[in-house]
């Protein structure tokens, strides 16, 4: 699952990003294609979760970006574009939110019922033996979002402005 914040995703440009140096002379909308590839690259192809990065000593890193992550994403973006894909597959990336909204009368997106939230990783409570005064234990925050989502939690929303959206099928 990949999640994008609207309208922020639609309004990305290379000029306002730290990845501009990876795409010299590229059109500004490439920042959005980079974001799509970047988020897909987080998916671990061998597991059912987020890609793990390994430190030089062989241990797992808690970071979600390895030292070459951004460069590898840029290489994948450039390799994809070198295949000369059908422009209709990515033309929506060339417009900002206002242009998409004007052209289509809004932007539809699949969201979760409890929008603007989304599924997140949760820590689980660890049952500990008798308290050890030398160990500081922080209580977990109460879970406020569902920990299991079903198709009943998925809705289509129409985004019509910078801070405006409504569930499709609801009155304006």
Task: Describe, in plain words, how this protein is organized in 3D.
There is one protein chain. With 172 residues, the chain is α+β, with helices and mostly antiparallel strands. Helix content is 20%, strand content 13%. The chain has a three-stranded antiparallel beta sheet with strand order 3-4-5. It has a two-stranded antiparallel ribbon with strand order 1-2. It is built from three helices and five strands. The chain folds into two domains: 1-95, no CATH class; 106-172, no CATH class.
> Could you give the distance between the termini?
29 Å
Main structural class: alpha+beta
Strand content: 5-15%
Number of E strands: 5
Oligomer: single chain
Order of helices and strands: HEEHHEEE
Q: Characterize the main sheet.
A: 3 strands, antiparallel
Radius of gyration: 20 Å
Q: How many H/I helical runs?
A: 3
Question: How is the largest sheet built, in terms of strand order?
Answer: 3-4-5
Our count of domains comes out at 2
Characterize the overall form: globular
Uncertain residue segments = none
What helical percentage do the residues reach? Answer: 10-25%
Average predicted local confidence, pLDDT: 82
Descriptive key words:
172 residues; alpha+beta; 2 domains; three-stranded antiparallel beta sheet
Write the layout of secondary structure elements.
Blueprint: H1 30-41, E1 53-54, E2 60-61, H2 69-82, H3 97-104, E3 107-112, E4 154-161, E5 164-167
Antiparallel strand pairs: 1-2, 3-4, 4-5
Helix pairs in contact: 1-2
How would you summarize what this structure contains?
It is built from three helices and five strands. It is of the alpha+beta class and 172 residues long. It has a three-stranded antiparallel sheet with strand order 3-4-5. It has a two-stranded antiparallel ribbon with strand order 1-2.
């Amino acid at each position: 699952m990949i999640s994008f914040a609207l309208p922020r995703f639609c309004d990305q440009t290379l000029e306002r990003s730290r990845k501009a140096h990876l795409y010299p002379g590229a059109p500004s909308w490439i920042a959005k294609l980079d974001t799509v590839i970047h988020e897909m690259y987080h998916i671990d192809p061998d597991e059912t979760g987020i890609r793990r990065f390994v430190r030089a000593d062989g241990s797992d890193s808690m970071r979600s970006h390895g030292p070459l992550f951004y460069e590898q994403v840029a290489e994948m973006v450039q390799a994809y574009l070198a295949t000369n894909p059908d422009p209709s597959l990515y033309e929506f990336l060339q417009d900002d939110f206002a242009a998409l909204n004007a052209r289509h009368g809004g932007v539809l997106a699949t969201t979760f019922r409890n929008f603007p939230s989304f599924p997140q990783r949760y820590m689980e409570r660890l049952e500990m033996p008798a308290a050890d005064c030398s160990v500081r234990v922080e209580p977990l925050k109460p879970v406020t979002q569902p920990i299991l989502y079903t198709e009943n939690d998925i809705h289509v929303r129409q985004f019509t402005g910078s801070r405006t959206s409504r569930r499709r099928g609801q009155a304006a």
